[in-house]
Amino acid sequence: MENVQEYFRKNRDEHLRQLKEFLSIPSISSLSVHKEDVQKCAEWLADQCRSIGLENVRVFPTKGHPVVYADWLHAEGAPTVLIYGHYDVQPVDPLDLWETPPFEPVIRDEKIYARGSSDDKGQVFMHIKTLEALLETEGKLPVNVKLIIEGEEEIGSPHLPEFVEEHQQLLAADCLVISDTDMIAEGRPSICYGLRGLAGLQIDLTGPKKDLHSGQYGGGVQNPAHALSELIASFHDEKGRVAVEGFYDRVAEISEAERKALAALDLDEEEIRKELGVPELYGEEGYTYVERTSVRPTLEVNGMFSGFQDEGIKTVLPAKATAKITCRLVPDQDPEEILQLIEKHIEKHLPKGVTYQVTRFDKGEPFVTPLDHPAIQAAARAYEKVYKVPVTFTRSGGSIPIVATFHKLLNLPVVLMGFGLPSENVHSPNEHFHLENFDKGLLTLSIYWHELNNSLR
Amino acid sequence: MENVQEYFRKNRDEHLRQLKEFLSIPSISSLSVHKEDVQKCAEWLADQCRSIGLENVRVFPTKGHPVVYADWLHAEGAPTVLIYGHYDVQPVDPLDLWETPPFEPVIRDEKIYARGSSDDKGQVFMHIKTLEALLETEGKLPVNVKLIIEGEEEIGSPHLPEFVEEHQQLLAADCLVISDTDMIAEGRPSICYGLRGLAGLQIDLTGPKKDLHSGQYGGGVQNPAHALSELIASFHDEKGRVAVEGFYDRVAEISEAERKALAALDLDEEEIRKELGVPELYGEEGYTYVERTSVRPTLEVNGMFSGFQDEGIKTVLPAKATAKITCRLVPDQDPEEILQLIEKHIEKHLPKGVTYQVTRFDKGEPFVTPLDHPAIQAAARAYEKVYKVPVTFTRSGGSIPIVATFHKLLNLPVVLMGFGLPSENVHSPNEHFHLENFDKGLLTLSIYWHELNNSLR
Questions:
Q1: Among all residues of chain A, which has the CA nearest to that of B201?
Q2: Which of A23, A113, A290, B66 is deepest in the core (most CB within 10 A)?
Q3: Widest CA span in chain A
Q4: B197-251+297-364 maps to which CATH number?
Q5: What is the band of B167 on the pLDDT scale with cuts at 50, 70, 90?
Q6: Domain A2-196+366-456 matches domain A197-251+297-364 at the CATH topology level
Q7: Contacts of B325 (CB under 8 A, 6+ apart)
């Protein structure tokens, strides 16, 4: 490992320069105005893969944004690893809250600031640089590697399942490794063994055919903003539980053992409360903060709007009101069924005087991996050699909808080894990535491929 | 009257050209970016007053937008009329719904389209042209006239009360005439004898100090969009009544006679429903549509927003949620007290896990005038001579907050004779004004000043 370590040291400035180049491409997958940037980002990534000696590099077009594929398959007799990541990023609004522009990466206090630095470009880039270092210093990789980096993760990977289904042979492997989750805290490396699923939808309520004068018409017709508020309020009960009928029917109750393991994470709720800046933590009665954010399902409004939004007032009775909602799901909830239950709920609780329309967004199944799998245990050893502390095993509240698809279609164990931190403003202004974990992560991954070869061979 | 009628006919094109000039000034009082336009509009109006022979023309600065004053006081022994109007207009969003730009007036199908064409520049302009016609054809006016045209009506006239209080001598008159209300329908001239009052406020709820990843944090903290929805839902009960404690305490119940008069308006609710495009009319149980929109108080959300509002989804748990609300009030509700009751309600019903801030907007007292006042009866005669049908007496759901102030400070009877139509998209895209009522209105006002001289002398 010393040669590899030396390689990373010697090339650090150049690697960071390349990372900045990667981060400066505004590959926002949800906004059609950035479609060309997403394509450009895929090409950049493919060039990187070629330049470090990966083979069969391809930018596969899809009906949406492209998938980048590359491999190196000369570790005869060694296991094959599929590495998944994404090069697309979240939108950047509110732009005025960014201290420096989201696509002009800068390093401050040993953190690199840019949209995508932590989620997930920074972590994708670490995988590439790890492979580069091993190829440069050892002349080969300890395992066979296939990279699949997609451009639609932030919009729910609408076209990846089809791609995976069509390329099962190409993607066949012994284990899937993903770096798109968080360490539990600074200095506490974590392996995530479960992810929540996702079910997203938009509700549009329509009242009058145009905005009305709230004096002349107010009191005469339903106000869609009132109706939407009632509807949203009806989604939860006074105990913070989701009040959609049947929502919890398939939720696997967590075992006492798992509750103990989660409690052992020893998160300081008062510390969390202070860091988030809320007057109090709040959520489903009977569960701790860590349980509510990892093993319990949720229904959250991500955005809502109706009527006048500029400064001052405008005395209108709005014609429309919209809410954007996503649910986080846990085993064994089914995203399709959950969307159906919500639609039933809307139909049943729709206030008088408005009509509604539901648009479905992305779906993803929840996922949990056995903790004692050798691929996971090898990852734990790699972490411990670099970070010098025991690894924490967690379940994340986030969703990587494609994980369940990979598992189902390719029948793979999944190892989620993330190097981000919860404080890194993922999906928010001033996203950043700690260079300490960039440096340690490169080493951890280098060691991991050797450990994995020993475990799975 | 024949000379006057002939004058209007001969000068119609020139008058419409001038009106277009007036309407092309974007005097949006609520948006600070238009401050200079509002000033320019006041100057334009003052020039008009000078050019038709009014005297003592002044553009009075205020702490906000200016007040335009002008008079003609040579009708010895005749009563003095104070004419009030406003030259400011509402914002124009959503701009993409306008068929032609809001500040590029055009005439289509004998209607003039522009922001302010009906509310209230078009009607202010009619008053000026009426005075011009009488001065040009009869060499004098039948009554003494004082004009006060303000630039802050659409933001609740924040500085006019102070102005009126400081200029009681200047504004002293026998009667106040305002043309800023609607006719009840095409061909049905109406005199409005009551206006609802106004109380506006903005509620800002704050949860976490920044937008959070809804996967990582969802379920752990209160979502301000949920909290706002609950709060808004709590403002009404299941019978469509405002559920703010004490809200109805001072509401004067309408008499059977008044209910009968309102019923006699003979509005076709099914026709209204169709025109508004709603699946059903909705509002406070136990009252008809016309009662709910004129003699009953309301609480309406004019705008609300939280979190992500662009296309697609963004999986955030929003940091903030905002609602803009106005109440329409009826005698004897007090705007100040209503705002206090709402603030108490918010404090009491605030969901857990968020903090709130209330910003007060404008206030205006409700107002009702005796129907049998000679100034009102004179107006009815003037209308009937031109429109050849009996006048309808109405109470409007809208608010002209300054009316109560004038009444209180100057002790004046108020005559609300409006020439707008409810279908003219006031406060909405494609505002317009029917030229038929422009033409008939000019004649009606010309006759009214003579009738008023006979009644009040």
A1: A313
A2: A23
A3: 79
A4: 3.30.70.360
A5: very high
A6: no
A7: B200, B201, B202, B203, B235, B299, B300, B301, B302, B342
Rounded CA-CA distance A128/A230 in Å is 50
Q: Are A329 and A335 in contact (CB under 8 A)?
A: yes
DSSP annotation of A174:
S
For residue B34, what are its two tokens?
Answer: 């238009």
A2-196+366-456 fold: Aminopeptidase (3.40.630)
- What one-letter code names the amino acid at A315? T
Q: What is the chain B residue with the closest CA to A182?
A: B216
Neighbour-count burial for A43-52, b at 16+ CB within 10 Å, e otherwise: ebbbebbeeb
Q: For chain B, how big is the Rg over CA atoms in Å?
A: 23
pLDDT at B256: 87
CA closest to B119 among chain A residues: A213
Note whether B219 contacts A296, CB cutoff 8 Å: yes
CB contact under 8 A, B221 and A307: no
Partners of B350 on chain A (C-beta within 8 Å) are none
Instruction: Give the three-class secondary structure for A329.
Output: strand
B-chain residue closest to A323, CA distance: B309
Which run of H or E residues covers position B328?
strand B320-329
Give the Cα separation of B227 and A414 in Å (integer): 38
**Mutation for testing the B interface, residue in A315, A349, A423 having most B CBs under 10 Å:** A315
Burial state string for B36-70 with b = 16 or more CB within 10 A and e = fewer than 16: ebbbebbebbbebbeebebeebebbebebbbbbbb
Q: Is B16 exposed, middle or buried (0-12, 13-18, 19+ CB in 10 A)?
A: middle
What was the pLDDT predicted at A136?
A: 97
From A429's Cα to the closest Cα of chain B, the distance in A is 8
Shortest alpha-carbon distance between residue A94 and chain B (Å):
9
Maximum Cα–Cα distance across chain B: 79
Contact B208, B329 (CB under 8 A): no
Q: How close is the nearest chain A Cα to the Cα of B158, in Å?
A: 12
Measured between alpha carbons, how far is B248 from B185 in angstroms, rounded to an integer? Answer: 30
- Give CA–CA dist B275/B30, Å, rounded: 29
Q: Is the pLDDT of residue A456 over 80?
A: no
Q: Beta strands B67-72 and B55-60: pairing type?
A: antiparallel
Q: Are A377 and A308 in contact (CB under 8 A)?
A: no
Closest approach of A144 to chain B, Cα-based (Å): 32
The phi, psi pair for B119, rounded to 5°, reads -125, 90
Distance from CA of B311 to the nearest CA of A (A): 7
Cα–Cα distance list, A60 to A30, A34, A89 (Å): 19, 18, 19
User: Which of the pair, B393 or B443, is modelled with greater confidence?
Assistant: B443
Segment A114-146, tens digit of pLDDT: 999 999 999 999 999 999 999 999 999 999 999
Q: How many CB pairs under 8 A join A and B?
A: 345
CB B188 within 8 A of CB B395: no
**Residue of A219, A226, A316 lying closest to B397 (CB–CB):** A219
Do B328 and A207 make contact, defined as CB atoms within 8 angstroms?
no
Residue A58's contacts (CB-CB under 8 Å, 6 or more residues apart) are A46, A68, A69, A70
Interface test with A, best of B119, B230, B302, B425 (most A CBs within 10 A): B302
| Domain spans, chain A | 2-196+366-456, 197-251+297-364
Q: In this complex, do A278 and B304 lie within 8 Å of one another by their Cβ atoms?
A: no
Residue from B278, B342, B241 nearest A217 by CA: B278
Q: Per the structure block, which two tokens stand in for A67?
A: 């998938």
Q: B280 contacts in A (CB within 8 Å)? A: 352-353
Q: Name the closest residue on chain B to residue A206, using Cα atoms.
A: B278
Using CA coordinates, name the residue in chain A closest to B30.
A312
